[in-house]
Records
---
Amino acid sequence: MSRIDENTNPLRLAVPIFIELLLFMFMGNVDTIMLSKYSDSAVAAVGNANQITNTLLILFNITSAATGIMVAQYIGASKREELNKIYTLGYGMNLILALILGFTFSIFQVHFFELVKMPKELFEDAQSYLSVIMTFLFVPAFFSLSSVILKSHGITKLSMYLAILMNIVNVIGNYTFLFGPFGLPILGVKGVAISTVISRSLAVLIMIIVLVKNLKMSVKISQLLPFPGVLFRQFMKLGLPSAGEPISYQFSQMVIFTFINMMGTATVTTKVYVQIIVWFTFLGSMAIAQANQIVVGQLVGAGKYDAAYRITMKSFRQSLLYTVAISILFIILRFKLIGIFSTNSEIVKLGASILLIDLFVEVGRVSNLVIISALKAAGDVNFPVGVGIFSMWLVSTLFAYILGIHFGLGLVGIWIAMAADEILRGIIMFFRLRSGKWRGKRIVTG
């Protein structure tokens, strides 16, 4: 377990987080790359399915975000006696939510497809994929929560090693189910989903074993008797608004994806391929943001606000430098990068145009990743979600429709709208951090 104080450099924690995120990104994109050798329509179907899945999974941020912030602040305040109650609340709420969401989606899945304007030729593959993912929705729910708890304790390397294991298991599973070596049955996209569930389940099992043995985690119903009303209120006070910003973002992205579906399968496929490339531009910033959040949470829990501010500003500068450098490199190589995934000239040309605009998206996103996570770690959760809801819907989503659909700019118009949203929110969050209004908002007292 790593000791965290005002002298901690978030980069030390960020390196294993970066490798973990890189490997997880690789895992998701390996599915896309391997599916592209199987069927172009399968890529678009799974892209739609993942957009729906990600929208539902983001709801688990309510518990994961609250658990991470509370664990970090309680450790920083040297109040470890309440941790098992926090763990039990987190796992219990995630399990209940996973069962409700999985059951609801299984009944209304066709309505979801129609709602997002998914092309009907993609329905069959999307249903095959989601039938497996939704049945085992509790697996990613437990995975995200377990990972957050480990990182809040400063244990960041385990997730990195598990990401390596998951990639190996996932690639072997994908190959087996997609191409049927040794006469094995070919299951197509359903097999890709099975492979994903198996690899994640293995990682969850290992994380829980480590949490129980090394951190003495105990998750029992008896931990909630008598019911810890104060902890639960803190949980919801942090969780609902803290998750509100990413939930709002994901739902706005779902609406925007609906606009993209209206533009045809080629545009959907272009968006999927561009998203893979774009991941690399903010991967480093995301790692630094997560590491910075761990450090800030513990520093704020200990009442060291000046150190939290200083470290956050340094993390922001490092993230901005990384993102701009990678974005410029990708602009130079844009045609070759899109060409890795497709030889379709329409897709290559459109994708290359999007990568030019994406530089502005990523510059704004840096501030939103690093500063918003720091504000949440400090307990300042209401302001980011208020600004986020306003900007995501009245700037990103509204102008995505106006530019992309009404004025016929297509995917280019949608990316311009997303850039405007990220930059506006980024500027507002930067000045929020500078104002110091987040100080004194920690949830741990005494």
---
Amino acid sequence: MTSKGTRQKRRRLDKPERMDIRTIAKAANVSIATVSRTINHVSTVNPKLAKRVWEVIDELDYFPNTQARALVSGRSRLFGLIVSEITNPFFPELIQGFEDIAVENGYEILVSSTNNDPKRMTHCIRRMIERKVEGVAVMTFGIEEPLLDQLAKRKMPLVFIDVAPERPGISLLKVDYHHGIRQGVQHLAALGHRSIAFISGPAKLHSAHSRAMAFSKSLKECGIAPNPAWIVEGDHTLEGGIAAMEQVLAAKAMPTAVMCSNDMTAIGVLHKLYRAGLRVPDDLSVIGFDDIHIAEVTIPPLTTIQMSRYELARSAFSALRAHVEHSGDSAPKREYNIPTDLIVRESTGFPRGTMAHLGKRKS
């Protein structure tokens, strides 16, 4: 065990201009092999020696060379994370959760954004392969065929959301869209709404199609007939929400509530309604989907359906780790279920003109 006097003596030494694994071994009075095994978290290292090595690393403010570690261990301990749109707050929140979990477990992440551009996707794939990632979480809410072709033949573990091919080494995060959307429709129905619009996401996205289907099914469960004029395709952006709401307002009759396929769309809807001189929820109730952090501070705070970024990140990391490490307690699964739940805030209320609505305004 290193004595207090020895540690104080080390601190008085000038930090070497060039530090490497040999410097740490000499200062800790252990072999280079011991330092290497300690840094690479080899379980057979003597705990006392490992403790001494980590103390020296901390005292000398040494940063291990991750590329050298990969050469020694044969593993990069690096996971790739691909998202589709970095400007949507949902994805930075997802990235943060994934990185937090990865770092806690001794992994690093390499993030790439496709921006829904095939050329960018090709660049993302190249980066992942060049950096020798051990697995990739594809959080684009849609299968990326070029990614599959390039990475699957390298037998690299992959995780997708919603839909994935039946291949070895591939896991699926299955989001229960229907549960949360049904809660949202039932919430509106309980308030008395029967004229409910829906602004979807891009038709090419499987997730957007699933949310639209869940909405239609939930309406039928509540005995509400959908109005085709109030079912509008958006693109999951603020601008798309504004444009879609303009289309809804241009219809012959106006709904009393609108559900949106994501929160960015809903925020665009709030903006358009404000510009049109309409009040939320007095004139129109609004529900989003995702529960991004900013949804709590919109005016009014947005009622939305929560899809936990942390749960997505945790499940994606767990799936990749299970594929890579093949440990008995964390054997890879084909599917990981992701729940959704309604979060009621202040953007939903009684339909305009009803007795309940008029009574609330008078009180």
---
Amino acid sequence: MGEQHVEQHSSRPSGRTIVAIGSIPLIMTLGNSMLIPILPTMKSELHLSSFQVSLTITAFSLVAAIFIPILGYLSDRFSRKAVIIPALILYGVGGILAGLAAALIPHPYAWIMVGRTLQGMGAAGTAPIAMALTGDLFKGSDESRVLGLVEASNGFGKVLSPILGSLVALLIWYGVFFAFPIVVLVSIILTWLFIKEKEKKKEPPKLKKYVSGLFSVFKHEGRWLFTAYLAGATCLFTLFGILFFLSDVLEKIHHIDGVVKGLVLAIPLLIMCTTSYITGSKIGQNQRLMKKLIVLGFAMLTVSYALLSFINNLTLFISVLAISSLGTGLTLPCINSFITGAVGKERRGFVTSLYGSVRFFGVAIGPPLFGWLMEWSRVGMFLSIAGLTFLVGLLALFLIHGGEAKSGEAQGKGKGEKKKRRRVIRNLNPMGGS
């Protein structure tokens, strides 16, 4: 009976299961975005330097990026829920520790950093594992639709986080730390009750065999997989970089701050979030369409950033920026679908987690690099970013083909499999890239 219930999840997604999965990536998003509005207050209340305050964001991001592949392997070795639920608990504990330190200890900075480190470790077991879990539970067009929802949930969290952080800070600045465990508790309950995984039919591979299989995957599918990784990281790098730039412009030039600034920043994020969901619900398993949308998305990013270098009017700036948000919303769900389908279930956790790690590095370097470019030249900054997105779009056009890595893993199983793989790649990649 239990197996029959799980199979129903695979073929016909339950709304409660989808909501539970969608709640998981929301947690990773909240980790930095909710904290940003309170950083100036934290700096003054605790008498910190700008560098010390920035470390509360950097520590979270770097720890998450380091632990994502580790937890990805563990999710393949054991189960997705066996990683997700402890990770969510650790995330909540880190928030409680940071909040109690700020409330009760005269000099709480060191303990706040410990809490943020724990939160980074916990965040590593959220969004990337949720992507792998989606690939496990759903097939065909349902998989793409739920992956679109996962990306939309991530974007929705980015929309709400600065606004929620600003509202909570009206009560007490460190109240944000206590908000984390409340949100986490909801996700833990939903995950525990409504996500049912298939039982593993065989013993998972040992580490040596597992690593050997991964080398086989990247040997045969490495060019397009790494291009897909680069494309996803570029989308997040430019998104967070441009938001950093816009936040600075709103405050320094237009004198807009607080909740109103959060609402303005939410506009491009809301466009990206909505586009991600619609894209995920429409693409199904049509990999040719996915590739076209990825290339179209990067073309929109390139045009948008090139035009922004010459625009100063705020309303027009937001309108043109919306083009890049549309491009990001078209691109990310397609890349997610390509990557989750790249390998079999036994290695999916690591491959999607490595993708999540690369995305996190993109988020981490976006604001500081954009800040450096802003000091150099506004026009130079936008044209440089437009050049980057144009280059990545070209790489996507010629290298992303969506050939299944499972075929690479099965090398040597017969000429029929090799012919089938070549035929699939030829059909998916009329431009000639392998």
